[in-house]
Specification:
mainly alpha; Protein RarD; transmembrane; 13 helices; transport; 323 residues; membrane
């Protein structure tokens, strides 16, 4: 019963995390007339404030000294910070420039890019269904390039940057809160310097657009940290396969907002490209679920045999006990 309650709680956290990520296109336009780079700088500065308060409450500081003593790990953290900056900045720019649909495509194709990086960088082997999904994904990008009259560069940069970020995080093997703190701490000095420079030039919108606008810019820290906290709470409560399915909620919401709320154009060739991406994701999901079920069945089949193997020594030991 307790396990079921934990899993139900994890699902709620997962829906909360991906729901917030899916609805975030509604937030960034509220920050106009701030430009994408100014919003990004505020996001870096205020995110550090939020995660700093969280760490202060949890009293989790020991990892900082350990990180500083490892130059390679610190270098990977700096690289992760740079990559996620590109991802965050481009996403904000895309949303505020009427490219929500193309931005959502980036997160639809992200699992396919992650698989491709696994093959190219980590030397992983793919099963037939995974190869088929990746091939269909490449075909989808080609169709969309024809439809847009150019490669869907926003989608590709978002997908590759986030997949690269995930690869670096895998190498780092740090907790979500700790890694976000380290990354934002490294980004804080240049971000703050940029905001000060804007203020000196009289181009900052933080103080010139009223208290409401200032509060919205400050809330970028919460917008960044809250979904990550919910995601972390979900990750320890639900199976990885369930979490993998939940990840599609965010781009689905983003796509829906782009078409239904922002009324972005969707000509037939663009629908065709998205349809191919969705076919690839269905194949990928089916293959992941089938593999998960197969592995679980093997474990269940092996459990009685392992118990039977362990039983004779125990029985022998019991027989030798004095009556």
């Amino acid at each position: 019963m307790k396990a079921e309650n934990e899993q139900r709680t994890g699902l709620l956290y997962g829906f909360g995390a991906y729901g917030m990520w899916g609805l975030v296109p509604l937030f960034w336009p509220l920050l106009k007339p701030s430009g994408a780079i100014e919003i990004l700088a505020h996001r870096m500065v205020w995110s550090l404030a939020v995660v700093g308060v969280a760490l202060l409450a949890l009293r989790r500081w020991g990892w900082i000294a350990e990180l500083v003593r490892q130059p390679r790990k610190l270098g990977l953290t700096a690289l992760a910070a740079c990559v996620i900056s590109v991802n965050w900045g481009l996403y904000i720019w895309a949303v505020n420039n009427g490219q929500v649909v193309e931005a959502s495509l980036g997160y639809f194709i992200n699992p396919l890019v992650t698989i491709a990086l696994g093959v190219l960088v980590l030397g992983e082997r793919l099963r037939r269904a995974q190869w088929a999904a990746v091939g269909i994904g490449f075909a989808a990008v080609a169709v969309l390039a024809v439809g847009y009259g150019r490669p869907p560069w926003i989608s590709l940069v978002l997908a590759f940057s986030f997949a690269t970020y995930g690869l670096i995080k895998k190498k780092l093997n740090m907790g979500g809160l700790e890694s976000l703190t380290a990354e934002t701490a490294l980004l804080f000095p240049p971000a703050l310097a940029y905001l000060v420079w804007l203020g000196v030039r009289g181009e900052s919108t933080f103080a010139s657009q009223g208290l409401g606008h200032s509060a919205l810019l400050a809330s970028t820290g919460l917008v960044t940290a809250l979904p990550l906290i919910c995601f972390g709470a979900a990750a320890i409560r639900v199976p990885l396969s369930t979490l993998g399915l939940l990840q599609y909620l965010a781009p689905v919401f983003q796509f829906g907002l782009g078409v239904l709320y922002f009324h972005e154009a969707m000509p037939p060739e663009r629908w065709a490209g998205f349809a191919l991406v969705w076919v690839a994701l269905v194949i990928l999901t089916w293959e992941a679920l089938r593999t998960s079920r197969r592995n679980r069945a093997r474990l269940e089949a092996a459990a009685p045999a392992a118990a039977a193997t362990a039983a004779p020594p125990a029985a022998t030991a019991a027989a030798r006990e004095p009556a």
